[in-house]
């Protein structure tokens, strides 16, 4: 039989139990506890929310979350808590599901077969990953890959928004967004799509009000139950990821199951210095032998060092061709080629046309607005 409880009621029970006993409960435990005390509702209050997005302060947002009712099943077996499946937590009609992470829960590392995105909207929390613990602070975003042993605990009234995304949805809907020209995106294929590898990405956004607004709207949309809601939630998450990549890709850190976080620094260095960078210089800076560094790059991006440099150069070349009036010789110099002829030969080998032909073909279909 299904029962119903609001976020506010659940959170108040977790907090009061902790204040009274000094102990913390897991989510499944608190549901059982409330059930035994008759604190769960047997009838769905059927709370409805206005489809129109409302501007909310942080305090109003907390009150809104506290009012949301969700379904619980008090007969859950707590032994399943170490390995959480999509079907355990994401509703059948949803590809994306968002919650406010419960506070005052008992630490318990676990893993699941879906993607988890945690945004620290206010305060901080403790993040344990593969037996290492760090503090996530306000404004930080953590994207956790499936099959990663982790835990997140909050021992005060901090607010962490957790987005859960089905792996199939992430692969088909969001992964293309994360595979743009940026060199770091090449690494995403290994770090986020490995089936049995423990990995995460970390962004530092500081106090970004736009990201908060996106998540406020996502949460409001997720509380709706109509046929449009799921697609709207997907679009809000797309906007969330786009904002991260557009404004905060330079802050990214990752954990890699083989080498820790250091490899992210190597990729970032290549990204911002590719125009004049050589493998020998890169190896010297990061204290690797050239053969070993070559192997690491190939294993974790799927490309050789030379292929990566070429891809970065041509990616920027395409941007310059479409969005600027720079001369071909100026573009060649800007992206690190020693002559326009060399650049043109490389470009033609990849795009089967010259840079000028590419510009004419793509600028002709583009609309440009000049803002005076």
Description:
With 372 residues, the chain is α+β, with helices and mostly antiparallel strands. It has helices at 7-21, 27-36, 58-67, 86-89, 167-174, 183-193, 209-222, 229-248, 262-273, 279-286, 290-301, 305-323, 328-335, 340-351, 355-363, and strands spanning 3-6, 69-72, 83-84, 96-100, 111-112, 115-122, 124-129, 132-137, 140-144, 150-153, 159-165, 200-204, 253-255. The protein has 15 helices and 13 strands. The strands form four sheets. Strands 4-11-6-9-12-13 form a six-stranded antiparallel β-sheet. It has a three-stranded antiparallel β-sheet with strand order 8-7-10, with no helix packed on it. Helix 7 (209-222) packs antiparallel against helix 8, helix 12 packs antiparallel against helix 13 and helix 13 (328-335) crosses helix 14 (340-351).
Topology:
Elements: E1 3-6, H1 7-21, H2 27-36, H3 58-67, E2 69-72, E3 83-84, H4 86-89, E4 96-100, E5 111-112, E6 115-122, E7 124-129, E8 132-137, E9 140-144, E10 150-153, E11 159-165, H5 167-174, H6 183-193, E12 200-204, H7 209-222, H8 229-248, E13 253-255, H9 262-273, H10 279-286, H11 290-301, H12 305-323, H13 328-335, H14 340-351, H15 355-363
Parallel strand pairs: 3-5
Antiparallel strand pairs: 1-2, 4-11, 6-9, 6-11, 7-8, 7-10, 9-12, 12-13
Helix pairs in contact: 1-3, 7-8, 12-13, 12-15, 13-14
